[in-house]
Design brief:
This protein is of the alpha+beta class and about 500 residues long. Helices cover about 40% and strands about 20% of the residues. The relative contact order is 0.13.
């Protein structure tokens, strides 16, 4: 018995097949390009993405050979929606959440429905990073595309449709539209009317993890998958990655250290007075029933480390550049302060990019000192939020790490020391694909619960406990960080 997980990201898609012990028995990855030809534009060629999803599925099917794939699920980035006509044919590109061309339509919406009311209905802070502003832009500025479109399908749900012929939208990705009434479990008529968006352009809603039926005969032939493989409603890639890293219970979190640094916090507190709502973070339906996820993120995670590699460690430009960079941390003796506002941030600050700062430099500082300070600053951003949650009575008790940055033992130990909680490193690095496979296994009844599935499929490589002898050092560094952040914020920098 094996399970296929499909993880569709912003710049590439991955598929992986896992056996009953969680071992990867087949995997493949394909990249695609973001279209940025116009100011503010960020789109994907929907047909190109679908072709490459088909390619990785077929590759995994061929690699797995005699290993029987019983179920599959697709997880994808949020916001991107694929327009299809009444015959199920792709009509146009998918617009990413980083596309800013819909900003004026958001302004029009919030003039009619205040941002706090949108948050109350949807659980999402009103922003251009959701699908709705660009759906409104498409209606107003790409009228031919809008008229030809029968349904706008979230990316993972588009893949599910192509595999089964059934058009649905799962709750977690519906949350990323800013049109989902999270309490009613339906599309919000109030927001749609104010936005002048036609709700018939959206598919029926279903929770993540529901079995939809078998793959179509056509897709079975084209992909090489068994005709009786079961397809399960998809989920947001952040939900899948959390599960694939072993995070399933309230009070735990996943910290993804990719290009973005994103912390996915699992909880069961969606009510108005919960600490998560008081912080103003998103409240999104998780793949696990009656659980939710909230995100803290900023764009200067792996992107900042890569920038340092390219600008300050140019002599290390080879396949081992990152390990050699991190090896120099042992030489760091005098750390400055880095504010990680080099790119845009989400909660709690919602700051524009272009305001990164390296402060307190002297002629005695080395590049290792600056790298050390940058790694600290990236994590201090999350410490600020976790401290507030702890004070409000909702502490995060452990964090599981994933992504390229999680490969550094030195950084994992630093995270444990700064956050003062255990940091757990999963063995399998394809957390998104593994999480998709977990939801597929539970949704088809192959595992009776998420706890059983995670115990069976997720293996822990190692765990890092806070070293209390470092607590005073990092507490002082955080004070400097927070004081500098407060001072620059007051100056509107």
């Amino acid at each position: 018995m094996s399970l296929l997980g499909i993880d569709i990201g912003t710049t590439g898609c991955k598929a992986a097949v896992f056996d009953s012990a969680g071992t990867v028995i087949a995997s493949d990855y394909c990249e695609y390009d973001i279209i940025r030809g116009l100011p503010g534009q960020a789109e994907l060629d929907s047909a190109d993405v679908w072709n490459k999803v088909c390619r990785v599925i077929a590759s995994c099917s061929k690699q797995s050979g005699a290993d029987r794939i019983e179920a599959l699920l697709a997880a994808s980035m949020g916001e991107a929606m694929v327009p299809v006509d009444s015959q199920g044919r792709i009509c146009g590109n998918s617009v990413l959440g980083t596309d800013t061309r819909g900003a004026k339509y958001l302004d029009r919406l919030t003039a009619l429905i205040p941002a706090n009311e949108i948050y109350r209905i949807t659980g999402q802070p009103a922003g251009t990073g959701y699908a709705l502003p660009n759906l409104c832009r498409i209606k107003a500025e790409e009228q031919e595309l809008y008229q030809r479109t029968f349904k706008f399908l979230p990316c993972a749900d588009f893949v599910t449709f192509m595999l089964t012929g059934k058009m649905t939208a799962n709750y977690s990705l519906a949350c990323r539209t800013m049109l989902f009434d999270r309490k009613g479990g339906c599309w919000s008529q109030k927001i749609a009317v104010a936005a002048e968006f036609d709700l018939e352009k959206l598919p029926d809603l279903r929770p993540s993890g529901q079995a939809l039926g078998h793959i179509s005969a056509k897709m079975s032939t084209e992909s090489g998958l068994p005709p009786d493989v079961q397809v399960v409603t998809g989920t947001h890639d952040q939900c899948a990655a959390a599960l694939g890293s072993g995070v399933s219970r309230a009070g735990t979190a996943m910290l993804g250290l990719g290009t973005y640094a994103c912390m996915v916090m699992v909880h069961d507190q969606p009510d108005t007075n919960s600490p998560f709502v008081r912080l103003g973070v998103n409240i999104e339906s998780h793949a696990i029933p009656e659980q939710y996820v909230s995100f803290i993120y900023h764009g200067a995670g792996g992107a900042l480390v890569k920038w340092l590699r390219d600008e300050m460690f140019r002599d290390l430009q080879d396949g081992n550049a990152y390990p050699r960079m991190f090896a120099e941390l042992s030489q760091s003796k005098n750390t400055p302060v880095v504010l990680p506002y080099f790119a845009e941030t989400g909660p709690l600050d919602y700051a524009e990019g272009g305001h990164g700062a390296i402060c307190g430099l002297s002629l005695s500082h080395s590049r290792a000192d600056i790298l050390n300070a940058a790694l600290q600053g990236i994590i201090f951003y999350f410490k600020d939020a976790l401290d507030r949650l702890r004070t409000a009575g909702s502490p995060v008790r452990s964090v599981h790490v994933s992504g390229g940055g999680a490969e550094s033992e030195a950084w994992r130990q630093m995270i444990a020391d700064i956050l003062d909680i255990p940091v757990i490193n999963p063995q399998v690095k394809e957390c998104g694909a593994l999480g998709a496979a977990i939801v597929a296994g539970v949704g088809t009844g192959l595992y009776k619960s998420f706890d059983v599935a995670i115990t069976s499929l997720v293996k822990i490589e190692n765990e890092f406990q806070p070293q209390h002898e470092h607590k005073k050092q990092y507490a002082a560094a955080f004070e400097h960080y927070f004081s500098l952040k407060t001072a620059l914020s007051a100056c509107r920098i």
